[in-house]
Write a structure and sequence with these properties.
Blueprint: H1 3-13, H2 31-39, H3 44-58, H4 60-65, E1 67-71, E2 75-81, E3 90-93, E4 99-101, E5 103-104, E6 110-116, E7 122-129, E8 132-140, E9 158-166, E10 174-181, E11 192-197, H5 203-216, E12 222-227, H6 239-244, H7 249-262, E13 275-280, H8 282-293, E14 300-304, H9 324-330, E15 337-343, E16 348-349, E17 352-353, H10 354-367, E18 371-377, H11 384-388, H12 390-398
Parallel strand pairs: 11-12, 11-13, 13-14, 14-15, 15-18
Antiparallel strand pairs: 1-2, 2-6, 3-4, 3-7, 5-6, 7-8, 9-10, 10-12, 16-17
Helix pairs in contact: 9-10
Amino acid sequence: MNSTTITHAVLTACALFILWPLQAGAQALDASELKSELDGVLTADAGIALSARLHKQFGKDKLAAGVMLRGGALDVAWAIDAPGAAAAPSVASADGSFRLALHRLGATNVYAGATTLPSGTGISWSIDVDGATKGRGQLEVYTVDPLTLADATVPKGKLTQRAAWESKVFDGTKRDWWVYIPAQYNADSPACVMVFQDGASYRDVVQTVFDNLIARGDMPVTVAILLNPGAFADGRSNRSFEYDTLSDQYARFLLEEILPEVSKTVKLRTDASSRAISGISSGGICAFTAAWERPNEFSKVLSWVGSFTNIASGSSLREGGHNYQALIRKTNPKPIRVFLQDGSNDLDNNHGNWPLANQEMAKSLAFKSYDNEFVYGQGFHSAAHGRAIFPASLKWLWRDYKP
């Protein structure tokens, strides 16, 4: 795996904004509380107290570098320790669409500011101190969908980790995986199934959202299979090969190994209309590839910031997922439903431009009259937007489902 692929994998697994961890015993000050304090009448003593809390929370060095705080869904704050600043520091976005002046906290060297941003905002920000950049980061904010939150009134399904799976289709690899079984599952009625790549990152959101949507009747009784990418005994990840390659190998892995194994203990429907598959980044193109190769087995695709780019370039340097835009247009439509999500601040590197690739995918699908939906925002290469619209995207995928 080359360095760009490693970077790509790391970005997939990590949120792209930084929140420094609290020091032991510190009382957290979040953006909402700081905003409330700054919006009121801030006395000199109150400013000094806030400065002390920020120092305790982040430490001198981190506060001097500039920090961002979150609170609620849309509240954001910044703070910096800037002794000797000739003018008040400010936070600004790289595209010039946002600027926030920071205010001095009492007779201290700490400056802070807080605001409430519109849902869907995605910006690269930096803190300017007398013309020098002292802090920078990336930020996305979204309104919280109540269906992403646990509801004590709905029946709870069970998520169970299975024994590590040693694959034959991807020979020599082993992977962690989990199976979610909804509370409404009845062995007399086979369940629908939805597969997730990079499964560990979906454990919390899948269980909660599936519980809520199944209880409301917004999606059928559905078992979720959450699969991590395989790894070899020496620790090498097989993720890019499994996910980015344009072949039927991953579909065969599911059909020949994973689905039969789950079916030993859970009765699953086997028709394509009852099967969905999802993933983020390279996991997103993997989901599309599985359905593209086996549309008679998987009929529903959900992709977050999908890597429809030339990662699997091969010996010809042209064998990657960027080919789908043309393949879709040149191939008779397949019976699959596709939901794509991406953002204008997604990746742009030697593999391709993710925002452009997803827009081209959406245009190609629409040109061939696929049942498709494309939600395009300002987000980065993260799961933030996908998680925010996860309930809505599942309802769209499973709408009009009839067993």
